[in-house]
């Protein structure tokens, strides 16, 4: 609203909540620039208005009636005693009073004591188009220090040494998680007397306490062969199954026995019709385990006449032997079920170590490190990816120790233990030399004009397998394909391997993380009692239930509904609306 004193504005300032409390000892000053770089007067924001995670509104007037629209914002902090104090600001929104005109200045970074930060409206620009190139370089040099890396001895993966500023949990998120933990502990604490083994399936059913610990889906369908097959597609490890074009030589299936399960067809015919599929868990062959035995199974699946995927053969170890028979659905009921349980034991170990921790959390961390070290917060690719990074580094830093430690939770509830889980990560991810070359390359990028934010806006230094043109992006399509892959990992991939864990793991016969003793070595008819004897005790089951319940909680917003928004320009908002 224009007045005789100038133009009146409403200023909304949102502080970030993803950090420790900000100990400010000086005020923050804000002013604006128009397109001719004419400055407004300073607007002083008192320190008591800058609490963490707050949204505050202020009124002010730009007295110069010819000032026009604000194009830049400048945030300045005085240099007093707290030189290393930081202020995490999410955004500043400016609106003309009695008008629909709004000017957005996303900040999404720390403003340091004694520093001045100048940002354009929407703060989205390529380096070659940014007049504040020196500011970008300075920010990236700081980030190279904060996102310092090391190679984890436990997993062999590149990780951040300390949780950087702005990457910590918000107080709200921490409180929600801790509340749920305490609820689960309180709810299950009275059951701690149940430290013995389950004698019947009903003993497991008695452990559930809806709605906090409900009966999982696996409880209702665990005997079903169709459910077992569906776990390869819609379970928590859905990316292992492959089209079978040839039965491996070390898979000692009996052709006559197998063809009796193919609805009158032959092996060659169903292969040609692309109706035969295979899962081969050779990865965990000879894996060191805390206790018990982890098989390295192979299984065949067939799409029948009703278009249902069904299991038709399971071999529990890689090398054929008299003590390593191939099991079929026509075998005694509980003998076949036991084979399915031991197959799923291997599948669960690969799921938790590789599909979940390795290919989403640990690979994701490398992407977060590389993006922060290579790209300015003002870069459009940074702003596109950043919402998907929320809490990842904090989760990894806080969770890896308790999960993969020698006495950690996973070591207590999974047969392979922490040593086996770490070995799976090393075999699957560290053993993939091309992936490791890519990871090391990303995490080690510098921040000068020819690296990261190069002449093409985003460019990789040198050659790297798996990226277009040996690491040099030449078209927007190439960038789009790589960035889309990253976003898919952070969203769809993580959702598929994470949120279904309770419904699978919480009923051990459906998807066991732990099995006692030896797997079956012949076709002797087994009983339900034999199967139950292989299952973990009540205490381990309760721990598994509580752990997977926490992991399965939908505690973040849906895709596109970001907790922290980074993109405000009209093009991005239009794409988001679609």
From TrEMBL:
Residues 7-125 form the PLAT domain. One of its GO terms (molecular function) is oxidoreductase activity, acting on single donors with incorporation of molecular oxygen, incorporation of two atoms of oxygen. Keywords: Dioxygenase, Lipid metabolism, Metal-binding, Oxidoreductase. Gene3D superfamilies: 3.10.450.60, Lipoxygenase-1, Domain 5 (1.20.245.10), PLAT/LH2 domain (2.60.60.20). Coiled coil: none annotated. Residues 115-427, 429-578 form the Lipoxygenase domain. One of its GO terms (biological process) is lipid oxidation. This is Uncharacterized protein. The lineage of its organism: Eukaryota, Metazoa, Echinodermata, Eleutherozoa, Echinozoa.
């Amino acid at each position: 609203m224009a007045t005789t004193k100038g133009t009146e504005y409403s200023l909304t300032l949102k502080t970030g909540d993803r950090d420790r409390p900000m100990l400010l000892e000086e005020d923050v000053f804000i002013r604006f620039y128009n397109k001719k770089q004419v400055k407004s007067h300073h607007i002083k924001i008192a320190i008591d208005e800058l609490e963490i995670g707050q949204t505050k509104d202020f009124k002010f007037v730009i007295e110069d009636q010819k000032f026009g629209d604000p194009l830049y914002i400048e945030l300045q902090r005085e240099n007093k005693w707290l030189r290393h104090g930081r202020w995490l600001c999410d955004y500043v929104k400016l609106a003309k009073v009695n008008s629909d005109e709004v000017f957005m200045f996303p900040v999404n970074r720390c403003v340091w004591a004694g520093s001045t930060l100048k940002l354009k409206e929407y703060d989205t620009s390529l380096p070659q188009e940014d007049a504040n190139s020196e500011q970008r370089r300075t920010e990236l040099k700081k980030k190279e220090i904060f996102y310092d890396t090391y190679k984890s001895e436990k997993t062999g993966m590149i990780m951040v040494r300390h949780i950087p500023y702005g990457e910590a949990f918000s107080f709200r998120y921490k409180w929600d998680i801790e509340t749920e933990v305490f609820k689960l502990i309180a709810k299950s604490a009275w059951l701690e007397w149940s430290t013995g083994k389950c004698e019947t399936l009903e003993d497991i059913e008695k452990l559930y306490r809806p709605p906090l610990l409900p009966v999982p889906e696996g409880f209702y369908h665990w005997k079903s062969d169709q459910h077992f097959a569906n776990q390869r597609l819609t379970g928590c490890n859905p990316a292992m199954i492959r089209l079978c074009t040839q039965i491996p030589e070390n898979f000692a299936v009996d052709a006559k026995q197998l063809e009796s399960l193919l609805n009158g067809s032959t092996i060659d015919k169903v292969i040609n019709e692309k109706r035969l599929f295979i899962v081969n868990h050779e990865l965990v062959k000879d894996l060191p385990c805390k206790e018990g035995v982890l098989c390295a199974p192979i299984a065949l699946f067939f799409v029948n006449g009703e278009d249902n995927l069904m299991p038709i053969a399971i071999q529990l170890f890689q090398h054929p032997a008299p003590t390593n028979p191939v099991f079929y659905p026509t075998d005694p009921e509980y003998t076949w079920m036991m084979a399915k349980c031991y197959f799923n034991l291997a599948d669960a170990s690969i799921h938790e170590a590789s599909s979940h921790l390795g290919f989403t959390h640990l690979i994701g961390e490398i992407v977060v490190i590389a993006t922060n070290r290579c790209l300015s917060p003002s870069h459009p690719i940074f702003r596109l990816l950043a919402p998907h990074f929320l809490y990842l580094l904090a989760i990894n830093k806080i969770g890896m120790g308790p999960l993969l430690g020698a006495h950690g939770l996973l070591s207590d509830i999974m047969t392979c233990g922490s040593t086996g889980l770490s070995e799976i990560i090393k075999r699957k991810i560290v053993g993939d030399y091309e992936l490791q070359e890519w990871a090391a390359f990303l995490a080690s990028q510098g921040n000068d004009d020819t690296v990261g934010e190069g002449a093409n806006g985003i460019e990789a230094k040198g050659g790297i397998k798996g990226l277009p043109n040996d690491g040099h992006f030449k078209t927007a399509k190439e960038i789009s394909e790589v960035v889309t892959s990253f976003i898919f990992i952070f969203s769809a991939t993580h959702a598929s391997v994470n949120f279904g864990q309770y419904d699978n793991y919480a009923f051990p016969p459906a998807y066991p993380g732990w099995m006692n003793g030896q797997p079956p070595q012949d076709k002797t008819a087994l009983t339900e009692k034999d199967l139950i004897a292989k299952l973990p005790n009540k205490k381990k089951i309760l721990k598994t239930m509580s752990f997977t319940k926490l992991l399965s909680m939908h505690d973040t917003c849906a895709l596109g509904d970001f907790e922290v928004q980074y993109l405000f320009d009209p093009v991005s908002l239009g794409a988001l609306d679609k």
